[in-house]
Amino acid sequence: MRDIIVSLFILASLPICYRRPFFGLLMFTLLAYMRVQDLTWGFARVQRWSYYVAIITIAGFLVARENRQFMVSNLRTWLMITLVLLVGGSMLGSEYLKPRDFEVFLEYGKIIGVALFTTGVVRTRDHLRILLWVIALSFGFYGVKNGLAFIISGGGLVIIQGPGGMLSDNNDFALALCMGIPMLLHLALPEKSTLVRRATLAIIPLMVMTIVATHSRGAFLALGVTTILLVWRSPNRVAGFALLFFLGIAGVLAAPKSYKERIGSIGSYEEDASARGRIEAWKVAGNMIVANPFLGVGYAKFQYNYKNYDPKAFTYNEGTGDQAGTRVAHNSYLQIWAECGTPAFFIYLSLIGLSFFDLWGVRREAKKRYHSSWILSYCTMFEASLLAFVVGSVFLNRAQFDLFYHFVALIVVFGRVARESMAESPSIDSGSASRSQLQHVRPRGFGSRPEPGGFDRAPRAGGFDKGTAFGSSS
User: Fold this and answer.
1) How would you write the pLDDT of the chain (474 residues) with one tens digit per residue?
2) 103/154 Cα distance (integer angstroms)
């Protein structure tokens, strides 16, 4: 029955995907991050629903009469295209090229294609907001599902794995949840509906519990630095850090013993086999980089080449596929550097750096113009989520992580929409605000809701304006 319901739901959406490319992007995003197909047990689970939605959406986009752009012409979008070409070149130059490698490369191209398509289809603040809600609630669903299971079991569950796809590994799943927490926080705070706001905020503790249940040390560090940034960007840092201190103590007291032992092993990596293996893999990656600086050893060929750069590793068994004795890079930066070469590595870093610089530039402009703004709130949201990836990917083999490239595209969209909004909206500052407006401005406490609304303006007497309800026009 569940397979039938999911199949009918997806099939019924296809005509709308054809007529409305933005809706098609939403459906593709839902299938990629919520993985509704993985909630089934039969025929629906093995169908390539994402490809069907993508084909129908692109077909509708191509035949539409409207003059649409597939992507926005931006330095970061062209860098992503260049990165795909470099990755393809590294694959073709690989010593162990196989027919299946073209399928793997096509999957990577699909990831970049979706990111580029996002910049062209998501044009307005409403579009951006709805897409962010879909992504955030997709992760929130699994946060609630696994968080409640973690509570019911008394913290005694085995290590929780992700639903499937890019989230199948427990570490990848935990990293995605770390990136989703700032999204839920900053999408929920401005909501007009008290029920929606409180229900959404209630998801966050359950997501934290799910991250704990994954036993991911990288996610622990990512969550830590992300939380610190969120508090640092809050209106009242003193209260925020005080609250964080007490929550930290409570967390230490309530955390399962197995999790505390797992996290405690971070400081004693010499005694931990997994940590030692990561360090060894990093050394091997360094050897690959020195020997193949331009195109690397080949996209997705790190393990195939591992034995050539570490004599202690066992030989790869072509017959059984056994790779015992070899490791993945366990570091996204070293992974793309070793596999795809130095030019690809610097482009990858440029995507991260340019995204941060764009956010900081938008923040500077918004702070000059407004006392409170949805733009400032979104800057913090994107900054915190991207920081979670930057930290977490130090320990994960995730250079091809879908969510990272999607975030780069979303930040491109946000930068454009925010600057258009600032150009069209009147600003409120000490030089232009009327006396009656300024007299209502007062400091906000920790956790105050950022002001949404159609225009950025000074807060009114008696409190801050609330935002529009979920699903309504912003």
Assistant:
1) 888 999 999 999 999 999 999 999 999 999 999 988 888 888 888 888 998 999 999 999 988 867 678 899 999 999 999 999 999 999 998 888 888 889 899 999 999 999 999 999 999 999 999 999 999 999 999 999 999 988 888 766 667 787 877 788 888 899 999 999 999 999 999 888 999 999 999 999 999 999 988 888 888 999 999 999 999 998 888 888 898 889 888 888 877 777 777 777 766 655 566 777 788 889 999 999 999 999 999 999 998 888 888 877 765 555 545 455 678 888 999 999 999 999 999 999 999 999 999 999 999 999 988 877 899 999 999 999 999 999 999 988 888 889 999 999 999 999 999 999 998 876 554 444 443 443 333 334 344 454 444 434 443 333 333 333 333 333
2) 43
Its pTM stands at 0.85
> Using an 8 Å Cβ cutoff, are 333 and 344 in contact?
no
Encode burial over 239-264: b for 16+ CB neighbours within 10 A, e otherwise: ebeeebeeeeeeeeeebbeebeebbe
Which residues fall within 8 angstroms of residue 470, CB to CB, at 6 or more apart? Answer: 133, 191, 193, 196
